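Hi R.,

Here are the chain sequences for the assembly we discussed:
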Amino acid sequence: MIMRIANLLLVAAVFLAPVPIALATLGDARFVWLNYGIWLSAVVSFVLFLDYYLLYKRGKKIDFPLLAETPKGRVAVFVPTFNEDPQMVVDTLRSIKAALKDRGDIYLLDDSTKPEIVSALKTSCEQMGEKYVHREDRRGFKAGALNYGLSLISDRYEFLAIFDADQRPLNGFFEEAPAHFRDPRVAFVQLPQLYKDTRSEVAKAARYQQEPFLRNIMRGRTFRSAFFLGSGAVFRVKVLKEVGGFEENVITEDVATSIKILARGYTSLYVDTPLIWHGEAPLDVVAYRIQQNRWSFGYFQSLGMILKGKLNLAQFFDYFTGFLYWFKKGALTLFELLGPVVYLMLGAAFIVIDPLIYALAYVPYMLVSIAVFMSTVKHAEYGVKGFLYHQAVEYLAFPAIFSAFLAWLLQRKKPFRVTPKKTGKRNIKPLLLHSLILAILTLLAAMGIYKYLYFEMDPREAGATIVNIFWALYQAFFIAVGIAMALAPIQEEEPLIAGSQPLL
Amino acid sequence: MKAVMLTALKSDVGASTLALMLAKALAERGNRVTLVDMDVAGYISSIANIRVNGLLARSVDDEKLGNGYVGKIGRIQVVKLLGDGMRFFDDVEKLRRNPDQLTKLVAEYTAVSSDSDYVVIDVAPCFLDLILKSPFISYWLISPASFRIYVTDDKRPSITATVSFIRRVEGGFAAGQPFVVVINKAQNLEKPIAKELSEETESTNLLTIPFTPQLFHFSGDLGELPVFDQIKTLAHLLTIPPVVEITHYSDEKIVPNKKVNSALITDKSTLLMVPPERRDTNTLSTLLARLSYGREMVIIKSPFKERRFHINEFIMSPRYNFLRFKVRNINDVYKLAKRFGEEVLRIVANKTRPVVVLINEAELGPESTCCDVITQRREFWKTFLAHLSENAPALHTILVCEDIAGRCSPLVDIFEAVVKL
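And here is the predicted structure of the full complex:
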C-alpha cells in the first residue's frame, strides 16, 4: 500500500510540477494548455534524463561472473512467425539448432494464414526434425501463440527461449543465458540483438536509437526492472506457468509480461553480450512507423499494469519513465512543434518569462545534458552522427506514436502488425506531413528573422522572437534530416552465400 | 672418462645451475671437466659466451665445424651441443635419416670431450621423451653417461612425476643404483612427501638442497657461484670408483616401452602429449586424473567445444570471448588475467585441495592484435598464475593446449603441467 502511494505520488509530481511554473509564466490565456504542455515537456525531459543517467551510473557497476557451472536444464525454443519469408524462418531454425546442440528442442509456432507458407514451413520442419505448431485462429497474436506453445510443453524443460523469425543466436547463446539462472529469483534473462541489415539510413538511425537504450538503459535495469524485449530472451518455464503465461491483452506482450513477473517478487537480467545477430532494422519510414506505433501502443496499454502492479519505487520509476518516453515522443512533441508556430504566426505570448532568464537557465542545461549524454554513449557505436540520426528518426516516428497515443486514449483495439522486412520503399507520401511541418517552421522562422531585423521591438519581444526562431529552426533541422534520411537510397541486399536456393 | 647427466622433468628447478656447480666442484678437485649443453635454451652456452650454433645444428647444416661451439667458464670446457631452440626437433629427425652425419657428430664430440676426466651433461627437461627414443641422444645417455642426477623442486607434482619416471625408466629405486634424486630449492617441503620419497629411494638416492635466494643474483662468473655442501658430497661420491662405476644397462629399462608412448612425460613438470587418435574426452579425463594426483579437479572450459567431463565443470562465459578479443594493450592483458584469476579463485574457494584444469588454451588465452602474440599469451598466463599463487599457494593448475602452429611451446615452462593435444 505504501509502495503504491509512493508510486502514485511520483506520477502526481511529474504532472503537477509544471503547474507552478505555468502559473508563474502565464501569458495569453487562450494558450494556457500550450504553456502547461511546454513545461510538462521540459519536466518530462528532465525526468527521462535523470532516470537515464542514474541507470547509466548503475549499469556501469553491474558485471556478471565470467565463470559458471555448466547449465544442465533443457531448453525449449519458440519461434513465433506470421506469414514471414519461409527461407528466412528456416535459416533461423538452422542457426538455432546449431547453437542449441543437444540441449533442447525447437518449436516453430506458425500462425501464418497463407497456405503456401504454411506448407513450406511444415515440410521444412519435418525435414529438419523440428516441431511444427500451427494455429488457425490468431487469438492473442504473438502472446497467444507463445501461450499455446507453453501449454504444449511439459516440465521436462527448465528454460524457454524465444526468437523472432529474423533472429539468429550465435554459438554460446545457450551457454550464456541459462548460466545466469543460479539465483532462483531470476525469472528471465534478456540479451541484446544486433541489427544486421542497415542498408538504409532509416535502418541506421533505428540502430543508433537502440544504442543508448541497450548499452545504458537496459544495463542499468539489470536485477531491477530489465524487461523482456519480445524476443532474444530465456525464461524460467516454472515462473511463466506460475504467472499464467504471456500477457495477451496488450499488443506487445513484452512489457506487460515483465511487470507481471516482477510484481511477483522475481527479478530479471539483461546481459549485454551480443549473441544474437541478423535481426533486420526497419528499412523505410513506413516500416519504422509500424514498429514504433506497435511498441508505443503496447507500452501505453501497459500503463494500467504499471500503475496497479506491485512494483517498488525504483522499478516503478523505470517503467513509468518508459511510458513518459512514448508520451513525450508522441503527444508532447506536438506541443513543442506548436509552440514556435503559435508565437511566430499569431504573436500570442503563451509563456511570459524574461528571455534572459530563460536563456541563462536553459542554454547551460541543454549543453550540459547533451555533453553528459554524449559521454554516456562513448563506449557505444554512436557519436555525433548517431545523435543526429537518433533525434531525426524520432521526429519521423512522431505521427505514429501520436496516433498510438490517441488510439489508446480512445480505447481503440489495434491488430498486431509485423514490422515489414526485406523490402523498403522510398516514397514521398508518408513524408507529406513532415514536409508541411518543415515548410511551416522554416517559413515562420524566416518571417521571425525578417521581423527581428527590420522592425522595432522591445527587448523582451526581441528575446522571445529569438527563442522561438531557435526552436523552430532546431526542430526544422532535425525534421529536414529525417526527410533526407527517408529519401536516401536503399542498398540492395547482398546474399551471404551466393547461389543459395530459395525455398519457394 | 666418466659422464654425469643432470636432468629434470620440469624446467626452472635449477638443473643447469646444479650442473655448473657440480662441474665446478669436480674441477676444484683437480679434474679436467667438460660441461655439455644439451638444453635447447642454451643457458650454459650463453654463460660461456658461445654465440655460434651448437654442434648438432652445425652437423645437420653441414657447416664447417670449427671450434666455435666450444667455450670456457673458468677452467671448465663447455661444449654447445644443442641450445639453438626449437629447430632441435627437425635436427634430430634429419640426423635420424642421415647416419653419416650422426657418425660425424659422434666423432667430433668424442674428440673434444675424450681428454676430460668428467663430462657433465645438462639435458633439457622438455626433451626427455625424444632423448629416450632417439639413437642420437641415447648414445650419450646409455653408453658414456654412467651417472644420472634427476633434479626436482619441492612441489608434489614435480616430485611424483620424477618418482614415476624413475620407476619406469630406471626400474625403481635401489641402493647403489647409479642415480640420485636432488630435491632442489626446498623451502616448504611437505613432510609426508619427503618421508614418502626417502622411503621410496631408501635415502641413498636422495639429496635435498634448501632454497637459496642469493643464487638468483648469480652473474655467470664461476668464481661467484657457491658450491653447496650436498654437491660437494656428490662430487666426492662420483670420484669414488665403486659407486659410480656401473658399466652395464639393459636397453629395455632406459627406453620406455610402447605402452607409455601415448602419454609421454616431458617438459616442466609434466607435459602429456596425447596422440590424435586418443584425444577423446575419456582418455583426456584419465590423463588429467593421473596428473591431479587424486585431488579434486575443477575443469574450466570454453563454451564452444562439446566436451563433457561430468565433474566440477565450469564454462567461461561467451562474454569472456569478447573480452579476450578486445584487449587493447598489454595492460589490458594483465587486467584480464587478474580478472580470470579472481573468477577461478572464487569457484575454488570452498574446495579442498583443488586442481584447476584449463581446457583449452586457444579458447581461453588473449587473442587480440594489440601485442606480440607470444608475449601477450605468456604474460597473460604468467599473471594469471601469479595471481593464483599469491592468493591460493596450494592451488595446482594444469593447462590443456591444442598444439596448433606451436602455440603451446612458449607456455610449457610456465605451467606445472601441460597436456598437449
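Residues 141-145, 241-272 of chain B have pLDDT under 50 and may be disordered. The domain at 2-257 of chain B is CATH 3.40.50.300 (Rossmann fold).

Let me know if anything looks off.

Best,
T.
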